């Protein structure tokens, strides 16, 4: 009987040591699990922050670049304002360009010549240093085509002096009168009628 009791108590002791735990052990185990979970959450938060940082850096760089560009534009506007005699102290005053129109005809044997290319080239004059020599410079060009009556028309031409050139149908060379004076003087709100052009040049066959 004593031997049986000894074996039973011994087996019970092994079960207690091997399969069961004390409240202190359970608490320590629970604490360790919570610690692992907290560390895992911290690592995940850190990883997310690292992934997001390049995008944040990109946005910050874009803002800095935009600020630099705006600063350069403002500096350029201020520079133009200082140089322009027609500008206020803070902003450039953009003025409307006065315009006019022009029209004329290209003739051959008294009949209108259809399909001619017509070009008006603005003449820009300036004085030399000695203000004795006029230097003629070509400016903006405007081009149109004659209709079935040989007529051509230009709208919204900036006011000023122009020289006229024309090109016969299927030809490649431009023609102009040999003269020093402008062929047309465009005035604001007016239609300038150019002298009719009578060409005797041989037409090029297609």
Structural commentary:
The chain has 2 domains: 21-95; 99-198, Immunoglobulins (Immunoglobulin-like), CATH 2.60.40.10. It is α+β, with helices and mostly antiparallel strands. A hairpin with a 2-residue loop joins strand 1 and strand 2. The protein contains 2 helices and 9 strands; from the N terminus they run H-H-E-E-E-E-E-E-E-E-E.
Give a quick summary of the entry.
This protein is an alpha+beta fold. It has helices at residues 2-18, 23-83; strands at 99-108, 111-112, 117-127, 134-145, 151-158, 160-167, 184-186, 191-193, 197-198.
CATH architecture of the largest domain: Sandwich
Instruction: Characterize the main sheet.
Output: 5 strands, mixed
Reported by name, the CATH topology of the largest domain is Immunoglobulin-like
User: What's the overall average pLDDT, rounded?
Assistant: 75
The class by helix and strand makeup works out as alpha+beta
Gap from first CA to last CA: 135 Å
Q: Would you identify the CATH H-level superfamily of the largest domain?
A: Immunoglobulins
- Tally the helices: 2
Q: Specify the CATH class of the largest domain.
A: Mainly Beta
Dominant shape: rod-shaped
What share of the residues does DSSP label as strand, in percent? 25-35%
Number of separate strands? 9
Helix share bin? 25-40%
> Using only CA atoms, what is the Rg?
46 Å
The number of domains is: 2
Give, in order, the helices and strands. Answer: HHEEEEEEEEE
Low-pLDDT regions: 4-9, 11-18, 87-92, 129-136
């Amino acid at each position: 009987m004593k031997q049986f009791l000894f074996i039973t108590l011994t087996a019970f002791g092994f079960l207690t040591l091997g399969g069961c735990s004390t409240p202190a052990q359970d608490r320590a185990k629970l604490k360790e699990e919570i610690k692992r979970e907290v560390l895992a959450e911290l690592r995940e938060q850190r990883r997310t922050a690292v992934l997001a940082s390049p995008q944040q850096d990109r946005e910050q760089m874009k803002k800095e670049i935009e600020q630099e560009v705006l600063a350069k534009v403002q500096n350029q506007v201020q520079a133009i304002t200082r140089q322009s005699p027609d500008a206020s102290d803070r902003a450039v005053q953009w003025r409307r360009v006065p315009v006019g129109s022009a029209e004329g005809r290209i003739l051959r044997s008294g009949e209108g010549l259809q399909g001619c290319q017509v070009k008006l080239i603005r003449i820009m004059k300036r004085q030399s240093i000695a203000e004795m020599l006029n230097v003629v410079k070509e400016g903006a060009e405007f081009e149109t085509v004659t209709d079935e009556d040989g007529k051509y028309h230009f709208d919204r031409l900036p006011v000023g002096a122009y020289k006229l050139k024309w090109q016969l149908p299927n030809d490649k060379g431009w023609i102009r009168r040999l003269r020093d004076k402008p062929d047309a003087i465009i005035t604001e709100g007016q239609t300038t009628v150019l002298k009719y052009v009578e060409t005797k040049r041989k037409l090029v066959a297609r």
